[in-house]
Amino acid sequence: MTSSLPFVQESGNLSAPALMVHGGAGTFERLRDEGERARLEAGLATALATGWIVFERTGAALEAAVEAVATLEDTGLFNAGRGSALTSEGMVETDASVMDGATGTAGAVCAATWPANPVRAALAVARLAPSDTTSSPAASRRPGLGAPVPGRTVRGSAAWHPLLLAGAGADRLAEATGLTSMTAIRRAVAGGAVAGGAVGAPAAHGAPPQEHDSPGTVGAVALDGDGHLAAATSTGGLAGQPPGRVGDSAIVGAGTWADDSTVAVSATGVGEAFILAGFAHRVDWSVRSGVDLDAALAAALDVVSLNNGSGGAIALMPSGRFAAIFGTRAMARGWRDAREVVVRI
Ligand code: ASP
After folding, report:
1. I need a labelling partner for 135 at 20 to 30 A (CA). Which of 6, 199, 241, 337 fits?
2. Ligand 1 center from residue 290 Cα (angstroms)
């Protein structure tokens, strides 16, 4: 599952508020069909428009990123939410994660089967964090963690809360939160109440997981007008994956990361390699050390290649500096600020 393709890199500067989305990296065989390309581009543009409306209503990066991703999940065109790929046993198992760069609060779900919008379930997990999370002297209130280091701002929530819920736990929280179920959305699609195509592409039983040959995982990174960053990622995993397999999209620090002092990242590709590379953390650490964003992404994607994987990512800094990178044949991506809207595959 390696790729020897040279990395494609794009970067520039956006003015806050700004939003980037991706719809997966891969070989994108489906793009031989021009109609399909147009539909995917329209899906990306709609996600950017939705995120923009959320910016205008709430001004908040986290909500904008989550709703942009939920829009991509709802299209049924990408390997996420309603369009999720199937496991080797013909089931949908979804992963998603979100992170708020202002507070360091994150939430994630994996192997979820119930929610139509796993990204909203990940947000529900993040919201299990107590509300006084911003720059709190958390360590002093966490049993066994000792006194806070003087002069150091402690991020994350003041009290323990779960960050990643798997399977039934994720499903139960999504249901209790009042989210829409996958069954309800499928019924609505079948009844014509929701536009769009079929759910996923069935994998032959026992077939090895396929490298992303169709548009994939979705993600967003957002910068709001107050300089806060957020990131969100959602996937149906690798088509034909064994039941219970979880990739990087559910792993904060691998597929998703946001920190107001550095960068917001959402990745896509062979999840095992992104986990082994500690991809998003690696980008954060490089940027924190003063490395330019393009170089930080390329160095991290190099480590993904060393781990026998391929893929891509989008990233946004508090300054408005943004970058996209991929080492596959294509990556669906787009970005916008008040001046421009760009969508590319
Ligand atoms: N990263 C996802 C996973 O490994 C798949 C993808 O991005 O295409 O589950």
Report:
1. 337
2. 29
